[in-house]
Amino acid sequence: MIGLGTYAYFWQHAEGLSLIGAFEDTKAHGIDLFQICDYAPLLDMTGAQLEEAAAAARDLGLAVELGTKGVEPDHLRRFLDLAGVFDARLVRGMVLRDQVSDAAQSLTAVAGSFEDAGVELALETYEQVPTHTLLDIIDEVGSSAIGICLDPANVVAQLESPRECVESTSGYVKNVHVKDFAFARQAGWVGFTYSGAPMGEGLHDYDHLLHHVRPRERGINEIVEHWLPWQTDAETTITTEREWTRKTLEILRSTL
């Protein structure tokens, strides 16, 4: 299933868009899935506010996924509780650099609870932890509930190849983050900026990912997000963010 996530609304949230407002806009795009990922206000919401947001998602016919950073057992148990509130079947997780040595132990402590709840924990590929290290951790835990959230854009900062990341993780993937990315020369021709790009205009070979991961055949959700730099003013930035979403959805739908 194709979904939208918090990072597709990064600047809109910064300018005051509520979580329920993002739900409503997602549905207006004809999308039935939203990933609440690294959304800071979530952990400060009261029980009543959480129930209100969950009810709004249900009323709109939206499935919800969650996302957080860190693998401390108590923190992940908190997100497993939140998954129960939102009827979420997946939590995107992230092993932080200073957690690598204890990550397998921490994940083993909660794996059984995730399995019992029928909730998957998808650890994201990104720059703080090499992909092979992340896969070693998952193999050591050995839980059917724990796998990969594939975001090949992130691993470039580790000097990894996005294509190699896709190929090495393909059998572990439980969730995909969809965004394009590119290098651009800095002003004055000194160095490069690595940032987001409109889908189809950057370096991401999404057909390669579809071929190796086969998300549609395996029931793996594809969550749209962006790395959009600030565009001189809020109105221009938000207009661009919405256009990137429209274009990404158009391309993804054309591949169905």
What is the H/E order?
EHHEHEHEHEHEHEEEHHEH
Give unreliable regions as ranges: none
Q: Give the beta-strand count.
A: 10
By oligomeric state, this entry counts as: single chain
Within CATH, the superfamily carries the name: Divalent-metal-dependent TIM barrel enzymes
Radius of gyration (Å): 18 Å
Distance between the termini: 10 Å
CATH-derived architecture? Alpha-Beta Barrel
Largest sheet composition = 8 strands, parallel, barrel
Q: Per CATH, what is the topology?
A: TIM Barrel
Side by side, the strands of the main sheet go 1-2-3-4-5-6-7-10
Percent in strands: 15-25%
Question: What class would the helix/strand composition place it in?
Answer: alpha/beta
Mean pLDDT: 96
Overall form: globular
Could you characterize what this model shows?
It is a single chain. α2 runs parallel beside α3 and α7 (162-169) runs parallel beside α8 (206-213). α3 (47-60) links the parallel β2 and β3 (63-67). The protein is built from ten helices and ten strands. It has helices spanning 10-14, 19-28, 47-60, 73-86, 100-117, 131-141, 162-169, 206-213, 215-218, 234-254; strands at residues 2-5, 33-37, 63-67, 90-93, 120-124, 146-150, 173-178, 180-185, 192-197, 221-224.
Per-chain topology:
Layout: E1 2-5, H1 10-14, H2 19-28, E2 33-37, H3 47-60, E3 63-67, H4 73-86, E4 90-93, H5 100-117, E5 120-124, H6 131-141, E6 146-150, H7 162-169, E7 173-178, E8 180-185, E9 192-197, H8 206-213, H9 215-218, E10 221-224, H10 234-254
Parallel strand pairs: 1-2, 1-10, 2-3, 3-4, 4-5, 5-6, 6-7, 7-10
Antiparallel strand pairs: 8-9
